[in-house]
């Protein structure tokens, strides 16, 4: 009987994990940008670097998201793939219906010219130095057969939209860094792309100028309807979007969702909630500060409750934590960081499946 119950409960846990995974990851048809289990391995002189290790990401049409993460976590590699400049090793990546793994060389050029717009961190890399601001904006349209009169009109419109109409006839070296980047946003929008990709576009600029660039990206998103993915180290920038995705070790690890909520007093306040990303296979990354705080290493114990899943340190982790505390390592808080009460912890001698204590 007990064995039957354990099996049924383990199945409940699997079923719940499967359902949660299916609900958490937007389906292919829901995203303009959809990456599933994306892998990029670089080989240099016999050394293999796994820059992306099964990354999942879906960005809805019209969304503006920030991508953050430590240096080397894979942000630029992801943008290189989405922009069509680099090809993934495995997995899937689709942007506006284009399959970036199987796309032919010729289609790739067309894709880079019309489907995506790109803004680099280095201001000098975005503009040709011997063309004026207006000529820089018109240039991408010459590759897509837009008539000369239309090119000029659109260039004027875009420079105006991003607040740099006064720079129209100046060369890039006659523009400030902020003006150059706003002209770069105009260039990236010249061929009406579906997705705008920006890799640290405010990285070389001061805070006030960064705000201007970010305002230009937001204007592109709101006024032109273009979907925006911006990689940034700048916390102030990432706080201005509805969704911030964190990449850790080549995979999306957490997401912060922000929304405006109206309190009982009628006052609107911005709330931000952090979520761990659950992939299709039910995998999630626990934040390092949580696992380190509880000395969790190789394995954890899971407990299915009615409305949540508890994650508990195993006996070795509990011992390591208590030793660290008695050695006075400064790790004095013995309770979990958040979550269920210690009473809900499963028996130390039972298996994870035994720890299933609620109903799915
Ligand atoms: N062309 C390449 N050849 C070999 N390794 C590479 C190449 N491009 C990136 N890498 C490696 O892949 C990993 C991810 O690099 P990536 O540039 O995507 O990180 P990042 O998050 O953008 O970092 P940063 O914030 O410093 O720009 C790093 O270990 C990097 O050294």
TrEMBL record:
One of its GO terms (molecular function) is transmembrane transporter activity. One of its GO terms (cellular component) is plasma membrane. Coiled coil: none annotated. Keywords: ATP-binding, Lipoprotein, Nucleotide-binding, Transport. It holds the Pfam family ABC_tran. Residues 316-360 are annotated as: Disordered. SUPFAM superfamilies: P-loop containing nucleoside triphosphate hydrolases. InterPro entries: AAA+_ATPase (IPR003593), ABC_transporter-like_ATP-bd (IPR003439), ABC_transpr_LolD-like (IPR015854), MacB-like_ATP-bd (IPR017911), P-loop_NTPase (IPR027417). Residues 33-274 form the ABC transporter domain. Residues 347-360 have a biased composition (Polar residues). This is ABC-type lipoprotein export system, ATPase component. It comes from Actinacidiphila bryophytorum.
